[in-house]
Amino acid sequence: xxxxxxxxxxxxxxxxxxxxxxxxxxxxxxxxxxxxxxxxxxxxxxxxxxxxxxxxxxxxxxxxxxxxxxxxxxxxxxxxxxxxxxxxxxxxxxxxxxxxxxxxxxxxxxxxxxxxxxxxxxxxxxxxxxxxxxxxxxxxxxxxxxxxxxxxxxxxxxxxxxxxxxxxxxxxxxxxxxxxxxxxxxxxxxxxxxxxxxxxxxxxxxxxxxxxxxxxxxxxxxxxxxxxxxxxxxxxxxxxxxxxxxxxxxxxxxxxxxxxxxxxxxxxxxxxxxxxxxxxxxxxxxxxxxxxxxxx
Length: 296
Prior knowledge:
Layout: H1 2-12, E1 16-17, E2 22-23, H2 24-40, E3 50-51, E4 54-55, E5 64-68, H3 73-81, E6 94-99, H4 108-129, E7 132-137, H5 150-163, E8 169-175, H6 197-204, E9 210-214, H7 220-228, H8 231-236, H9 252-264, H10 276-281, H11 283-293
Parallel strand pairs: 1-3, 2-4, 5-6, 5-8, 6-7, 8-9
Helix pairs in contact: 1-5, 2-6, 3-7, 7-9
């Protein structure tokens, strides 16, 4: 909970009193590195005082390896590269879905409905891959704690869910949405905290839990190329900003993904999740829009 609440505390200029023991390594890294770096590169955040008993005893885990299963390109890239790879220690055992702020439409009923649809898809993916499924519903998504700020808070919110499962996970692969060449901690309080995930994961890895910024060395094009060759994605890829159940073909993420798959010559493989025929009929419109938005 300390990890999930630390950014809201920094934004509200609050100190933190925690009655539960905190890992010495975690508390040291948060107070010495994470909080000063984040606060000093923001417009209106401050380093909180954290009062908590410290515990040096390591927490034994089941050495599970997990990652999120949003169904998007970032998510599937991590799954594709950590599914039966030659690095057995980092091969996935669990896929996770966290209700921790990502479902943020100012309507709790719609949020819950979207989450349940995603849970259903995630379970189907896990069954196909033979992996275990974990879902976490966290109250760090409470609307009183900065509803509408999920981009700025998402990394630590998701990591807080992983920390709640310390006895399960030995490795957690946090799917990066920003490649390492765009690393930036400045003015992050306005933008996506994923811009400095490579720093964040080092600050929260401690006492037998290793968190990695997975996929951060690849561009969006390179990730899509990897996903295009991973057959489960042909049935389950979901990138859409608009449609709960499928892909709309019209939003920014759909257009970017469709045109990239087209460039890769793999668009027909995704006919189950996109309206490929509609795309072909309006291909010039897609390419024009892409050029105007400078997304290519």
